[in-house]
Fold:
Amino acid sequence: MRSLTAGTIDNTNVNHSAARAAAVIPLAPEYDSLVPASTPDVRTWTGDLIVRVMASGSSGAHESSFTLYDGTRLQWTGSALNVAHNPTSRSIELRAPDGSVVVRQVDGPDAVIAV
Structure:
């Protein structure tokens, strides 16, 4: 996985132990190139996301948000991920603090992914 932060793709590993409580961390699935390739064994990033939400503990914050480089806003409410202003069709894999994983295709500008 690669971290998507501040409009760039960071090839370093994300240190999840240093993330703040309830942090929304957008990641990209494994890929080889950002540029479309004609070779079938080269995986091009399609815009799909893995969204990891960090645990908050009993006294920590339960809500958090993150805005991606393309304007997509990801907001964790404590029980669901609200997706707003999404300009492109993409798959979003939500990894919730309780360990549950939900995968959903988001084709419109707004969606709610509940756990």
